[in-house]
């Protein structure tokens, strides 16, 4: 039996169907749009400068290839194994991959099969692979093994070139050392550390072992020279040798090698932090140095006795780390200066600032501070640092090599003339020393050449990718995360400008400091979306992006269900993510990013290729709270002290965005709340900018206040129309004057509980700290500007239940356990601080002086009347774990906002521990605390034309929906009787009102990885969807957007974007063409062309690529594999006169550019012709071998047949003779 109120409530909602057009279950389909991040730690990198593609591998067997902004493809190798080595054959689309099981796989990016590259070949290697090397002119991979040999893998044939294997060259050298008295264990197997092909002579292969380096002659199959790098007794070396070892001969272990671009000199890194330099024609090292000191292989008096003069008992070890990796870069002579200047001045769109010499990130100079001269080279060094050195990648800039004029043209091997040695040593004196600083020690780096794949893939780089170790300042999360950081910087460096940070592809930005702790998916209004993209066009977006241009992407839709019309999907959608580096980032995931751009009516059709990344990072909106906490103005916040002393304990707890007013509230783990607003950048001076910003904010506040103050109950609004004469107060129309007495002009604070924190004793306004004077790190760009901070009454613990709710009309509410703070953002002013121990005042008939100390589980701002109050005022609904619900009413009294002294409170068992609440009007629209609903409330209060126009007490105005872990309930007018209920939920965790075909439905996610859609207001199940994530016991944390898309955060490594309306949505990845067959491999530059003649004097005549290929392949090389590569999406071949441009209407070009383009086209045609002739020769040679073997087989068969016939004839003759003799 229903009571009278319950019966009236049931009659009021009976027949209502808010979800009438959304009840069809076929309108719901759960589909994964894409996965964000790498999925595990980055473990390997490789770059193809011809196709401009970056490949990365992860520790769990995932491969990703990045090209232009919309080009990205990922796939798994088939098992969760670590990717250890990657190598491109530049320009061919073949990617070599070696995993931790020493399986070599070759993927063909010219053939895509079901959205992933085709595995062209695979081979389990016989030894542990330690390094991988390739060359664009050779279809081979050189794989160094732990057994000291180098296997050669034939990419064209998909097999090993058995006859080309390089044996362990250091066995013989170790035997010589043993005979000379060096103690080396007999069972020791020299390990191949690194392999590098000579930059100008393909016949020479540099193989590094632990004890030294050997130069292998491919054509003659022998070692030309061996190098040992010896530190004589007394020489300091890397400084890691104790006094007992210092006066003995030392051979530091080799860790890496790198060729100088001219091929005359190579550098060798050592385990003691030294770098040795040797000439390719001399067995003796030219110089051995550390980063800061040359000739450490020479003894000085200071090295021998300096430490004794300091009164130290024994020599201290330097603790220098090994040199882990080297890369030696060269630059085109005619363009190095201009490109260096352009790289620094134009990459970021603004002129860089001068460095501070006192800063730790300043690049010191070892020589002149002038700009580098043409022909200089740069050696990039990973490691070799002392414990006191700043972490980072160090670079030494060397002058160009000037050959001596009187040096003889020929000489014997292993010995070079003194003038030549002096000239080589002069070219190894650094001109300057540069530093790319990192927050933690770097672990790897990768230079990105402009377009040349030669010179060890380090020629003329324009960017440098650096991976770093775990940052101890970041918190350690309980779940798996990718702790290695990834950074990108412009290249080459400069002495007068700080390096420019480049933006990585989106999937690489979720590691290290970008580890995501929480993320939300939000639909925002179109005007707010345009405001967020102000000053952010494609030029700004591409200006600081990593220079990747490879591949093409075209839009593609998912298959649409028959009989269903694709829904309209034009709502802007963004992701708001929080990260361990205390940064809040924004990502655009609107569907239009995956759709072809539409041309304006009457204009030319646009290119249908996609040009934006998905998700599109809105980097200009990144807000780092560290910039706020390091400022002295924020010293009153507990978070600021913790950030300075123990930053690893500080995390972002909650984030709330006001979508229309563009205000952002962030709650930290200390309970402090920091507020910011989106501001426009300005090119004027900072003072003018601040004045203009303050004026604009005042105007905005005045406009909002004028609307809100219309709700003032002190008197009529002068700008409002005259109020009509009202009838006497009745039970259906409560008196406004009596209602105004419910509000007081004093501020509310609660009584403190025993043992409360010191912040409980603060006055109300002491809970607020003004942060508006903190300068923005990017004042000339749009971004978030700090406004203020709120000190919470109590610091939350790791298990505390926290809530944060920011409205679009300027009110903030936050809770931690049972503490509550309410603030007015227009002051800003704190309206309420409610702490444990306060007796809550009850409403009429709802219980009086009821005390409850249970945790607050939900906060909700709304503009709606309740059963006991028909006024459309802003209200805050507070739900506690016990089921107690309090409704705070706000109104403006005398231009100042106050909370009502009379709090409506009620309790329901089905509301206990509700984590989500929603208020709907009688038409099914959600009554949010938005400016639009505020305008409707103003219109409602000013529209008193008749007595019937006033909603009496108890009239149907709203429906309150609550969701806890097991129950969904609907209540009449918030504090009225229950009208509907759904029980039996299996661990509900997240709920949101979403819209399907314009109708609202309630989406609820359960712990068992299910999403259920409920109709409104009857709460009937409409559809059920399940995540395909069987390996996880939970669906993780879910955030719904209003249009039904959702983001799933299982852990920092598994973040996935889904949609519940997977009907004809744009597909990701789109239709891709990764490898472009129309891009030829450029010819090797002639900058070091004179080196060939120098090397030929030492090692004989040079060898071409075709000759070396024939030698490596051997006489029994099988024919190449027949491949059907996908080239349909590529543009058709053009003639030589038109191949210099790719558009149908080329721009006028200077004559020099046209001639150069025609020459490049001719070179490309010649290269293709030569390649075709080489393949034809291979085919003919193979056919000739087959025909020759067939002729040999035929002759052998004839000989065997003849012999067999002779034997049979002899047998018959002998048998007939014996028969005749027997018969006689």
Automatic annotation (TrEMBL):
Subcellular location: Cytoplasm
Gene Ontology MF: a single term: myosin II binding
Residue ranges of the region described as Disordered: 345-371, 547-568, 708-761, 1109-1158
Coiled-coil zones: none
GO biological process: exocytosis; Golgi to plasma membrane transport
Biased composition (Low complexity): 750-759, 1125-1154
Name this protein carries in UniProt: V-SNARE coiled-coil homology domain-containing protein
Phylogenetic placement of the source organism: Eukaryota, Fungi, Dikarya, Basidiomycota, Pucciniomycotina
């Amino acid at each position: 039996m229903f009571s009278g109120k319950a019966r009236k409530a049931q009659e009021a909602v009976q027949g209502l169907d808010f979800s009438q057009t959304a009840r069809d279950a076929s309108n719901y389909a759960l589909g994964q749009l894409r996965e964000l991040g790498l999925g595990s730690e980055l473990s390997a990198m490789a770059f193809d400068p011809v196709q401009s593609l970056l490949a990365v591998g992860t520790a769990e067997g995932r491969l990703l290839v990045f090209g232009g902004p919309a080009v990205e493809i990922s796939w798994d190798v088939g098992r969760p194994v670590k990717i250890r080595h990657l190598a491109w054959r530049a320009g061919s689309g073949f990617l070599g991959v070696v995993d931790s099981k020493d399986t070599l796989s070759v993927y063909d990016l010219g053939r895509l099969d079901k959205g992933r590259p085709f595995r062209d070949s695979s081979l389990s290697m016989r030894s542990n692979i330690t390094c991988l090397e390739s060359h664009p002119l050779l279809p081979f991979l050189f794989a160094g093994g732990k057994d000291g040999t180098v296997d050669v893998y034939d990419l064209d044939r998909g097999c090993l070139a058995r006859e080309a294997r390089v044996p362990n060259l250091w066995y013989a050298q170790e035997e010589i050392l043993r005979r000379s008295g060096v103690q080396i264990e007999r069972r020791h197997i020299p390990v191949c550390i690194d392999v590098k092909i000579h930059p100008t002579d393909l016949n020479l292969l540099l193989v590094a072992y632990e004890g030294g380096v050997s130069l292998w002659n491919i054509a003659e199959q022998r070692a030309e020279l061996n190098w040992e790098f010896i530190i004589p007794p007394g020489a300091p070396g890397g400084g890691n040798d104790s006094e007992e070892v210092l006066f003995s001969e030392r051979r530091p272990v080799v860790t890496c090698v790198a060729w100088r671009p001219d091929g005359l000199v190579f550098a060798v890194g050592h385990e003691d932090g030294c770098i040795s330099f040797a000439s390719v024609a001399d067995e003796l090292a030219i110089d051995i140095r550390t980063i800061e000191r040359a000739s450490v292989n020479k003894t000085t008096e200071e090295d021998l006795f300096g430490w004794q003069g300091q009164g130290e008992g024994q020599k201290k070890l330097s603790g220098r780390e090994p040199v882990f990796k080297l890369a030696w870069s060269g630059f085109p002579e005619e363009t190095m200066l201009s490109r260096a200047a352009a790289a620094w001045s134009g990459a970021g769109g603004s002129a860089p600032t001068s460095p501070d010499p006192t800063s730790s990130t300043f690049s010191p100079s070892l020589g002149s501070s002038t700009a580098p001269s043409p022909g200089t080279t740069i050696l990039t060094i990973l490691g070799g640092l002392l414990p006191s050195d700043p972490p980072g990648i160090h670079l030494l800039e060397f002058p160009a090599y000037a050959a001596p004029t009187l040096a003889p043209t020929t000489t014997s091997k292993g010995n070079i003339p003194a003038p030549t040695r002096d000239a080589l040593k002069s070219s190894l004196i650094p001109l300057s020393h540069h530093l790319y600083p990192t927050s933690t020690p770097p672990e790897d780096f990768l230079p990105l050449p402009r377009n040349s794949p030669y010179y060890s893939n380090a020629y003329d780089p324009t960017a440098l990718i650096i991976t770093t170790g775990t940052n101890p300042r970041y918190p350690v999360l309980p779940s798996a995360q990718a702790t290695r950081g990834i950074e990108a910087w412009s290249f080459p460096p400069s002495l007068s400008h700080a390096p420019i940070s480049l933006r990585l592809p989106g999937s690489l930005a979720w590691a290290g400091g970008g580890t995501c702790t929480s993320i939300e998916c939000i639909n925002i209004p179109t005007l707010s979306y345009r405001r967020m993209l102000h000053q952010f066009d494609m030029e700004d977006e591409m200006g600081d992006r990593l220079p990747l241009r490879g591949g093409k992407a075209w839009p593609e839709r998912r298959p649409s269900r028959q009989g269903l019309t694709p829904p309209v999907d034009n709502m802007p959608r963004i992701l708001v993510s929080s990260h361990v580096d205390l940064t809040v980032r924004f990502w655009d995931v609107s569907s239009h990013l995956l759709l072809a751009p539409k041309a304006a009516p009457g204009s030319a059709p646009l290119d249908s290729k996609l040009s934006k990344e998905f998700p599109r990072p809105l980097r200009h909106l990144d807000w780092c709270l560290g910039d706020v906490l390091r400022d002295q103005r924020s010293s009153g916040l507990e978070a600021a002290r913790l950030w300075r002393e123990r930053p690893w304990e500080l995390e972002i707890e909650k984030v709330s965005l006001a979508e229309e007013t563009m205000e952002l509230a962030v709650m930290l783990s200390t309970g402090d709340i920091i507020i910011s607003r989106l501001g426009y950048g300005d090119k004027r001076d900072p003072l003018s900018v601040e004045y203009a910003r303050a004026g604009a904010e005042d105007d905005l506040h005045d406009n909002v206040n004028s609307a809100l103050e219309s709700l003032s109950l002190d008197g009529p609004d002068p700008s409002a129309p005259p109020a009509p004469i009202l009838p006497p107060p009745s039970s259906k129309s409560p008196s406004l004057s009596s209602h105004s007495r419910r509000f007081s002009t004093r501020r509310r604070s609660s009584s403190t509980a025993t043992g409360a924190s010191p912040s409980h004793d603060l006055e109300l306004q002491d809970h607020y700290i003004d942060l508006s004077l903190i300068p923005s790190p990017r004042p000339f760009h749009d971004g978030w500007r700090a406004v203020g901070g709120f000190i919470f009454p109590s610091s939350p613990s790791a298990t505390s239940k926290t809530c944060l709710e920011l409205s679009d009309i300027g009110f903030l509410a936050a809770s931690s356990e049972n503490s509550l703070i309410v603030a007015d953002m227009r002051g800003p002013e704190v309206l309420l601080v409610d702490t444990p121990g306060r007796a809550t005042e009850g409403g009429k008939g709802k219980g009086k002086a009821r005390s409850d100390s249970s945790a607050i589980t939900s906060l909700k701002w709304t503009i709606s009347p309740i059963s006991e109050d028909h006024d459309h005022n802003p209200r805050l609904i507070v739900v506690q774990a016990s089921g107690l619900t309090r409704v705070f009413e706000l109104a403006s009294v005398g231009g100042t906002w106050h909370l009502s002294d009379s709090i409506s409170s009620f309790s329901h068992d089905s509301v206990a521990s509700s984590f989500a609440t929603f208020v709907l009007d009688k038409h099914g629209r959600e009554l949010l605390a938005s400016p639009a609903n505020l305008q409707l409330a103003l219109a409602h209060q000013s529209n008193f034309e008749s007595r019937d126009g006033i909603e009496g007490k108890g009239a149907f105005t709203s429906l309150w929906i609550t969701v806890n872990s097991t129950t969904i309930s609907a209540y009449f007018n918030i504090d009225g009787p229950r009208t509907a209920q759904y029980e039996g939920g299996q661990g509900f965790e997240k709920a949101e009102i979403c819209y399907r075909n314009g109708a609202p439905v309630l989406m609820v996610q359960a712990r068992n990885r299910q999403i259920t859609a409920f109709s409104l207001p009857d709460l009937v199940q409409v559809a059920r969807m399940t995540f395909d994530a069987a390996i996880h016991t939970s669906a993780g944390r879910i955030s719904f957007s209003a249009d039904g898309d959702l983001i799933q955060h299982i852990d920092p490594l598994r973040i996935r974007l889904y949609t519940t309306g997977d009907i004809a949505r744009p597909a990701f990845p789109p239709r891709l063409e990764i490898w472009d067959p129309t891009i030829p491999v450029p010819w090797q530059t002639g900058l070091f062309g004179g080196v060939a003649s120098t090397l030929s004097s030492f090692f004989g005549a040079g060898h071409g690529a075709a000759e070396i290929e024939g030698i490596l392949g051997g006489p029994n090389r099988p024919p190449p594999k027949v491949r059907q590569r996908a080239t349909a999406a590529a543009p058709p071949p053009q003639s030589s006169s038109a191949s210099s441009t790719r558009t149908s209407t080329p721009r006028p070009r200077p004559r020099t550019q046209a001639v150069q383009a025609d020459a490049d086209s001719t070179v490309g045609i010649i290269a293709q012709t030569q390649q075709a002739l080489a393949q034809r020769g291979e085919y003919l040679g193979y056919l000739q071998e087959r025909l020759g073997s067939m002729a040999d087989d035929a002759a052998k068969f004839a000989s065997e047949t003849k012999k067999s016939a002779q034997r049979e004839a002899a047998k018959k003759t002998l048998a007939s003779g014996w028969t005749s003799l027997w018969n006689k």
